[in-house]
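This follows on from our talk about sequence and fold. Can you supply me with one protein entry, sequence and fold together? Could you add the entry underneath, on a fresh line?
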Amino acid sequence: MTIAGSTEKELDLKEELLKLVEQHGTPLCILDHDKIRENYRTFKKHLPRVQCYYAVKANSTQQIIETLFKEGSSFDVASYNEFMQVYQYIRHFERKEKKYFVWDKIIFSNTIKDRHTLSKIRQYKPLVTYDNSAEVKKLKDYCDTAGLVLRVKVPDTGSQVEMSTKFGVEPGEAAALIDQAFEMGLKVEGISFHVGSQCTNFDNYTQALAITSEIFDDARKKGYGLNLLDIGGGFPVPYDTHVPHFEKLAGLLNSEFKRLFPDDIEILAEPGRFIVATAATLVSEIIGKARRDGKVFYHINDGVYQTFSGVVYDHWLPNFSALKHGETEICAVVGPTCDSFDKISLSVELPGNLEVGDYLLTENIGAYSTASSTKFNGFDGAKIIHRNLLAPNL
């Protein structure tokens, strides 16, 4: 979207954004909960067999968790703190109902968990992932009530963020880890994998499903009652027109599920980016302007240490548009800190006539942005405001 354009819709949006800026200041992150609901329902519609566990790490803003809780979502958590963000909504449940919710709707998908966390969650008989022998021993000692899900290393070629170098057991070693867990009196519920974040190479999914189906078959032949498949995340967000459509991936997955896995196997997934990326828009303010080596540098009041942290940690390519017209040229947009590393982009097409006090707009900034923001140099991250927080009456 070019907000400085001429359509009536764009002008209305520009007016709305300027009113919000006048009220709240900048940098300002506008989070649309109707879009979160839409993305969640799209996921459920096209993957009806899959239970959706929102990956809290993508954006842990509490209101997002509340919105998805009300939608009926399950949750993927990586720490005790993330677990407690979900737990507060079931605190009032009866003890039996509370334990069932944790068992059925929360997965600790971080394959390495500290002993103290395991001790605290033991009472809930949680679902947890693992990928190594030391973790099996730790689970036996501190959380022997858990249901285990073995994470397997799978191809992640072409994904925006790869996972295979840090997580997952080699497929050829999977059987031994399943055997070890059962021999120690633990229960392995199933197999998980992750093809890498923002996966646009759908072959990763087909290869991963083929790998895990073989492990399932071998385990069941041994008499192990594995009944769960966790296909992780990676579902592509339409950051640009080159990203293949999610609906195409969903059709492929549904076909492979039917071909490779019996109906009694429960399938779950951990979408994070897919749910929240397109739900947020950022308005930043130009606080400085200089021409360096012939190129215009716009200094804004947000940067890679704050809301644009995804440029560093998520390999994200930021987008900018201006709120006023002008002849465009290739410009640089940099952050407010005194660190020269704080360069958001050195190649952005923007009007060259923007001045201090003008605003820039960045779309699709809901994932891995505010979640990894810091206060480096004493700069606060963007203020978050919520649109459509209450669901409309249906």
Q: What stands out?
A: The first strand starts at residue 28 and ends at 32.
